[in-house]
Write a structure and sequence with these properties.
Distance between the termini: 69 Å
Number of strands: 5
Oligomer: single chain
Radius of gyration: 26 Å
Structural class: alpha/beta
Helix content: 55-70%
């Protein structure tokens, strides 16, 4: 997980709360730092301040960063952000998982992150099962072909039995 906020004290406080709950947390204080950490870590959950400098505008700072992060990992929508609600809502529509306003309540932070982590685990399990099903379907098709002969033999045996006992 990656916590991105230009306010060093707040960033550390958020990261410390999440670490205390057992999460592995990286930290970044700027867009370039966040992009490097994101690329290096493969973080799947990002706590992101939407109003990151340089301009504080959602089109430039955190909003643009989140857009790039979402584009870099399509299909993974378990992201969440924090900042102004109007901006956060537009980003949720683009793929962010959730948002929190400032100030952040530590208990709510943990609950939201745990819920996002649970969703990621569920998405991973679904992917595993879909892969197993795809592999299994190919194997099952071969098995069904082999069973066709067995079923045909059983059917023939049943017909002989019916003829013999006239049941």
């Amino acid at each position: 997980m990656l916590v991105v906020d230009d306010d060093r004290g707040l960033r550390r406080a958020l990261a410390d709360v999440l670490r205390a709950e057992g999460f592995e947390v990286g930290e970044a204080g700027s867009e370039p730092e966040a992009e490097r950490a994101f690329a290096a870590s493969g973080a799947r959950l990002v706590v992101l301040d939407l109003m990151l400098p340089p301009t504080g505008a959602p089109e430039a700072g955190g909003g643009a960063l989140m857009g790039r992060m979402l584009a870099a990992r399509p299909g993974r929508r378990s992201w969440w952000c924090r900042g102004r609600e109007d901006v956060a809502l537009s980003l949720v529509r683009r793929g962010a998982y959730d948002f929190l306003g400032k100030p952040v309540d530590p208990d709510v932070l943990v609950a939201v992150v745990e819920r996002a982590a649970a969703r990621l685990a569920l998405e991973d399990r679904v992917s595993e099962l879909e892969s197993a099903l795809a592999v299994g379907a190919a194997g099952a098709a071969g098995m069904l072909g082999k069973l066709g002969g067995v079923r045909g033999g059983a059917r023939a045996h049943g017909e002989r039995r019916r003829r013999w006992c006239q049941c």
